[in-house]
Amino acid sequence: MSEMESGVLTGVVISTAEAGEYDRRVTLITGERGLVTAFARGARRQNSRFLSSTSPFTFGRFKVNQGRNSSSIAEVDVIDHFDPLKHDLSSVAYASYLLELSGYFSQEDMEADETIKLIYMSFKALESPCLDDRLVRRVFEIRTLINEGIYPGPGNDRHSGSFYKALSHIESAPVESLYTFRVSDEVMEELSGFGDSLIRRYVDRPLKAAESISLLLANGAP
């Protein structure tokens, strides 16, 4: 967008930071422009219309004004706050991981429609009590690498037939029906090992949210 131009971007808040006395610095992943950083003026005031609409995990349509030196959020039409997800500690940790991984690969001025769709459907899956958060994580990792064009496939490691059946679904299913399957504990272990190997290969720094998940699992969380 050119100087002082505004536009409506569909996306998700992946992180925020305090700015000034009452403002909030908001980082978004948007379908139209990829990674976007903008200021929400007065967002930390108790009665601000931006108080909840610019909080992490929020999906919406964001009207962003581009100034000379920075962008600012003028309006937000919230699509989903994902409040049920925010009230479960495990789901928060996994959702934070999905956003951190997406932020790692996202770039400014690069369309990210597939990323936005994947995050949205994955958040819906995390809200479901019928789905294993660990499975959502591994599906998300694989599909993210596919979207980025760097997914190497299963390689030459030996796995069970059930693993390959699950992997085929993950690789090829439309995003709308991505989370319509279940796996056994044994296959979950195979997918976890496979996902860990992919992240070690393609992500060159530790992800903070992954450490939080490890702590939860160590303490017996699902």
Secondary-structure topology with pairs:
Blueprint: E1 6-19, E2 23-30, E3 34-40, E4 59-66, E5 71-80, H1 83-86, H2 89-105, H3 113-127, H4 133-148, H5 161-172, H6 185-202, H7 208-218
Antiparallel strand pairs: 1-2, 1-4, 2-3, 4-5
Helix pairs in contact: 2-3, 2-4, 2-7, 3-4, 4-6, 5-6
Walk me through what this model shows.
This protein is of the alpha+beta class and 222 residues long. It is built from seven helices and five strands, in the order E-E-E-E-E-H-H-H-H-H-H-H. The chain folds into two domains: 6-80, OB fold (Dihydrolipoamide Acetyltransferase, E2P) (Beta Barrel), CATH 2.40.50; 83-218. It has helices spanning 83-86, 89-105, 113-127, 133-148, 161-172, 185-202, 208-218, and strands at 6-19, 23-30, 34-40, 59-66, 71-80. A five-stranded antiparallel sheet has the order 3-2-1-4-5. The N and C termini lie far apart (44 Å).
Keywords:
alpha+beta, 222 residues, 2 domains, 5-stranded antiparallel beta sheet, OB fold (Dihydrolipoamide Acetyltransferase, E2P), globular
Briefly characterize the structure:
By secondary structure, the chain is of the alpha+beta class. 42% of the residues lie in helices and 21% in strands.
Beta-strand segment tally: 5
Q: Overall mean pLDDT score?
A: 93
Shape: globular
Read across the widest sheet, the strand sequence of neighbours is 3-2-1-4-5
The proportion of residues forming helix, as a percent range, comes to 40-55%
| Proportion of residues in β-strands | 15-25%
What radius of gyration results from the CA coordinates? 18 Å
Number of helical stretches of at least 4 residues: 7
Unreliable segments (pLDDT under 50, ≥5 consecutive)? none
| Secondary-structure content class | alpha+beta
Task: Outline the biggest β-sheet.
Answer: 5 strands, antiparallel
- Report the order of strands and helices: EEEEEHHHHHHH
The overall number of domains is: 2
